[in-house]
Amino acid sequence: MKQSKRKNIRQERKKISAQNVTMKRLRGHEIKASHWDTFYKFYRNTTDNKWGTAYLTRDFFHRMGAKMGDNVLLVVAEEGDELVAAALNLIGGDTLYGRLWGCLPGTYYANLHFEACYYQAIDAAIELNLSTVEAGAQGEHKIQRGYMPVPTYSCHYILDEDFKRIIDDFLVRETAQVKLVMNLLQDSGPFKENVWN
User: Fold this and answer.
1) Is the dihedral of CA 52, 55, 59, 60 positive or negative?
2) For the chain, how many structural domains are there in total?
3) Same structural domain for residues 163 and 92?
4) Alpha-carbon torsion 156, 158, 164, 170, what sign?
5) Are residues 129 and 162 in the same domain?
6) Is there a single domain that holds both residue 120 and residue 175?
7) Are 193 and 159 in a shared domain?
8) Confidence at residue 92, expressed as pLDDT on a 0 to 100 scale
9) Which of 10, 44, 180, 196 is deepest in the core (most CB within 10 A)?
């Protein structure tokens, strides 16, 4: 990474301990029912403030934890003995997938989202010898923290030929636009020149 970007990340990470917040990474049996109950509150706080639809239930998190064991990584932030935020990650193959984040209603800690969702994920991937961290879609703020966008692909079967033709025409234009934006982002990203070549 460029020196200025490394410095910025170090400063962001220092702010966590300066706010008396302790980060912990929990897996499998370390994640207790009380963690899932609290995480559900965080999840609901996020959905209530952002999307308005909580499509996952409290029971879902308990079952996922019980069924997936060490393939679940819950990054928790504590102030004293109180959980104040958490980020849910899943592990599959050689990849750590960042999926959900939430915090107590009405709380704010500078840079806590970045620490819980991005920096702790990178630390965990290194410790677990995983080759990839997939931080999810969207968020230009991820780029300056080392998460460069990569193309993703999907497959769709369209029965209506007229509709298929319209989609195909759109995809030609969108593909060119995505390539242009990806090149611009690579050039303006946090990494030194030729790191991706």
Assistant:
1) negative
2) 2
3) no
4) negative
5) no
6) no
7) yes
8) 96
9) 44
Contact 149, 185 (CB under 8 A): yes
Contact by Cβ (8 Å): 85, 42: yes
In tens, the pLDDT along 107-136 reads 899 999 999 999 999 999 999 999 999 987
Q: Where are the alpha helices (DSSP H) in the chain?
A: 3-18, 33-50, 58-68, 112-114, 120-127, 161-188
Helices (H), 19-160: 33-50, 58-68, 112-114, 120-127
Say if residues 141 and 127 touch (Cβ distance below 8 Å): no
The rounded distance, in Å, linking the Cα atoms of 123 and 133 is 10
* The pair of three-digit structure tokens given for residue 18, joined into one six-digit string: 């300066």
- Whether residue 111 is found in the same domain as residue 19: yes
> pTM of the entire structure?
0.84
Give the pLDDT score at 185.
Answer: 83
CA distance linking residue 76 with residue 84, whole number of Å = 8
> What is the rounded CA–CA span in Å between residue 84 and residue 119?
17
Same domain, 76 and 109: yes
Nearest to 1 by CA among 147, 151, 157, 184: 147
Domain at 54, CATH number? 3.40.630.30
Longest dimension (CA), the chain: 61
* Tokens, residue 187: 């050039």
8-state DSSP, 48: H
What does the block give as tokens for 89? 């990650």
List the domain range (segments joined by +) for residue 21: 3-145
